[in-house]
Amino acid sequence: LEEAVRTADRLAALGTLAAGLAHEIKNPLGGIKGAAQLLEKELPEDSELLDYTRIMIKETQRVNRIVEELLALTTPKKLQLSKVNLHQILGDILTLQKNGLGNREIAFQQKFDPSIPPILADEEQLTQLFLNLIKNAVEAVGENGQIRISSRILSDYTLTQKGERRQRMVAVEISDDGPGMSREQLDQLFTPFFTTKSRGTGLGLAICHKIVTEHRGLIKVASELGKGTAFTIMLPLIQ
Ligand code: ADP
Ligand code: MG
């Protein structure tokens, strides 16, 4: 618990810093992006300089994303609870992801338990949670692979080791047959800024962890090098 309190304190302090930083960064960043877009319009269609304006615009978007993610991670936000249909959220994310695949051959399999009722949760945050996990799976499998998404009810899940607290939970599992992770990678998985991608932010899973914890749920990961990775999200089945 002490560790959790320390982490919360640290995040709150970071939150103040991040909010200030976000404000200071976003305005000049908007200026840079606007200027690059103007330049783009002024340049002839076949200008080689268009490569540079495109990079400028893309990179401002990247800085923007880092700032947004840092804010999502560090600013405390009250959960906006409503009855949320998990399968609808997952289905919408999958439709979007499938449309963005281009030439990649990624097969999605979904196996939902239709008896899962809507649960009381923050829809926007759950969307962010599953989007981050599904994007990671897509990025992990690369050019071709399989991603499975399933849901089930755990009718009597034991929350504590001694088994005195039991709870009805829904579990959503997102698994891929990508490269998997080493022990060292697994140990750092939820640490902010840990990334093995050249253009990653390393904030996605830290945000996932925060969202799941705020919903009093659990996030588990099983991974084996060369085989793949499975994330399981467990959320209390409160209607
Ligand atoms: P980012 O995606 O920006 O790198 P994340 O916090 O989402 O940041 O993920 C952190 C790291 O965890 C990734 O860089 C990757 O090394 C590892 N990782 C996450 N999901 C998977 C996965 N499905 N398969 C393999 N590695 C993963
Ligand atoms: Mg990610």
Automatic annotation (TrEMBL):
The Gene Ontology terms for molecular function here are:
ATP binding; phosphorelay sensor kinase activity
The UniProt record lists the EC number as 2.7.13.3
EC main class here is transferase
* Name of the featured protein: histidine kinase
Q: Which residues form the Histidine kinase domain?
A: 20-239
One GO biological-process annotation of the entry reads: regulation of DNA-templated transcription
Alphabetical UniProt keywords: ATP-binding, Kinase, Nucleotide-binding, Phosphoprotein, Transferase, Two-component regulatory system
Q: Which domain of life is it from?
A: Bacteria
What organism is recorded for this protein? Geoanaerobacter pelophilus
Reactions catalysed, as given in the entry:
ATP + protein L-histidine = ADP + protein N-phospho-L-histidine
